[in-house]
Structure to design on (227 residues):
């Protein structure tokens, strides 16, 4: 089994958390994709994922999956003991409902703010993610406002429950966690979000979150992003 991703990126972390929780790290070969040079938009990668995004899972028989939710669904079920996707009809449905909320209200606006409201991943990716058009930056900033509203919403949700969907850590918690890291890096987190901060500190200590592989950006990526 092979995973194509880039160390330290938010969606890579989603899958690496699942792999760590399932004890699958040693069964996986990682192939790093240089997102900053737009390798994910070149024909070799587009042949595997026409959307041109990581992570991507490739099985030994050539079966390919993209989209973190779909990859998580697959990985979570390979041992017949789903930890993140729920088992009863109500739990599964609640997980998917909250998952969609986190993506729509937080992860997607944060991603848009990063790519449209800031220099994003830089010049090589600009033709795909940061093309210049009238109002581009304003739209990015508005998506940043939406992300702030999303943060306020999840802060309220977590004021009186331990995790987003169930009493245990499930798929939408993974998505919220990586969204918080992403939002923090680009300066969207406010000190008023105390429930989120407490929840984040608790999740930081979960062994499969703490011990996941590929936590940090590669030094060369850091240098290119800050240069
Ligand atoms: N909906 C996708 C989002 C994947 C995504 O946005 N991945 C980022 C890395 S964190 C990426 O490949 N960005 C490069 C690009 O947009 O070209 C998923 O759930 O996996």
């Amino acid at each position: 089994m092979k995973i194509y991703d880039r160390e330290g990126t938010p969606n890579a972390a989603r899958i690496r958390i699942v792999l760590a929780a399932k004890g699958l790290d040693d069964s996986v070969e990682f192939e790093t994709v240089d997102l900053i040079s737009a390798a994910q938009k070149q024909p070799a990668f587009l042949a595997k994922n026409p959307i041109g995004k990581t992570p991507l899972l490739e099985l030994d028989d050539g079966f390919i999956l993209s989209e973190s939710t779909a990859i998580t669904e697959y990985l979570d079920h390979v041992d017949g003991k789903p930890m993140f996707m729920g088992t009863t009809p109500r739990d599964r449905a609640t997980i998917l409902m909250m998952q969609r909320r986190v993506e729509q209200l937080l992860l997607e606006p944060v991603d848009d703010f990063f790519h449209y409201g800031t220099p994003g991943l830089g010049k090589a990716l600009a033709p795909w993610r940061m093309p210049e058009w009238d109002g581009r930056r304003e739209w990015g900033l508005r998506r940043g406002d939406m992300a702030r509203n999303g943060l306020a919403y999840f802060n309220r949700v977590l004021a009186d429950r331990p995790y987003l969907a169930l009493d245990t850590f499930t798929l939408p918690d993974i998505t919220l966690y990586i969204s918080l890291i992403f939002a923090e890096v680009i300066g969207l987190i406010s000190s008023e979000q105390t429930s989120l901060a407490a929840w984040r500190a608790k999740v930081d200590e979960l062994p499969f979150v703490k011990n996941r592989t590929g936590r940090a950006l590669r030094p060369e990526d850091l240098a290119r992003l800050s240069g």
User: Anything to note?
Assistant: The pocket of glutathione is lined by residues 9-11, 35, 40, 52-55, 67-69, 125, 128-129 (CB under 6 Å).
